[in-house]
Amino acid sequence: MSIILDGKATSNQIKEELAEQVLALKAQGKRPPHLAAVLVGNDGASLTYVGSKVRSCQKIGFESTLIQLEDNITQAELLATIEKLNNDTSLDGFIVQLPLPKHIDEEVVIDAIHPDKDVDGFHPTNFGKMALGMKTFIPATPFGIMELLKRYKLDISGKHAVVIGRSHIVGRPMSILLSNKGNPGNATVTLTHSRTQNLADITKEADIVVSALGVPNFLTADMVKDGAIIIDVGITRVTDANHPKGYVIVGDVHYDQVKEKASYITPVPGGVGPMTIAMLLQNTMLAYTRNAS
């Protein structure tokens, strides 16, 4: 039976720490950190996620601004909005919620965000600094996973970590962070993806598996070894007529099976998801500190 890596409880702890920092700033007569979110269109999942970010800001005393734009906005209009936010001195950081409508080039949009306000950590400048082990904004989901490992005092030095998924948001930065010098870090990393052959043979040799593939219940018990650390980044709505909402939230990991073999495991929901929001707030505090210095 595995120990649950409780992302909800850990994220609440981080938020409490940030709230104390905000109170200290206000006691000194300073303004609180300010985070903005740009939402294009009315995608249900994006609305829920951005709403959660706004509520988290309010809870810890951050200022927050939500900018909602129609899904038929032109790329030029969106870039003009980003430029205004880049030049807004009252704003410490902002995110543009992904995915964007198909007629907008996400790469161009990410590149337009000033690196000093890129609290998502997606800008090439910040990604490059992360790869070099320099102080910068780390993408919130990988940052949250590393923070979970750190706060649970899990030693991954010299261990074999397998990352499933090669996205720029999770998979690639995760592989870099796990192998970087530091604690946690110094793991030997294998980056796998949907085209990897004999994937189960690779995961069965792993001390740590981070799955960010987006395929429900993909990682089964026969794919992991006893005592492995399992991090589930996947989050998919699966139709379930027996559930009051008509669906259930499912991760990449077949939780009921794998929890019997893993030493540590993240649940879905309540694992990586809450940590993502907490580390976005942490990045905003870092941006604020930079602006104040």
What descriptors fit this protein?
293 residues; alpha/beta; Rossmann fold; 6-stranded parallel β-sheet; 3-stranded parallel β-sheet; 11 strands; 40% helix; 16% strand; globular
Give a verbal description of the structure.
The chain is an alpha/beta fold. The chain folds into 2 domains: 28-116, 3-Layer(aba) Sandwich (Rossmann fold); 140-273, Rossmann fold, CATH 3.40.50. The chain is built from 10 helices and 11 strands. It has helices at 7-27, 44-60, 75-86, 106-112, 124-131, 140-151, 171-179, 199-203, 255-258, 272-292, and strands at residues 3-4, 34-40, 63-69, 93-96, 160-164, 188-192, 208-211, 229-232, 236-239, 247-250, 264-265. α1 runs parallel beside α10, α6 (140-151) runs parallel beside α7 and α6 (140-151) crosses α10 (272-292). The radius of gyration is 19 Å and the shape is globular. The model has no long low-confidence stretch (mean pLDDT 96).
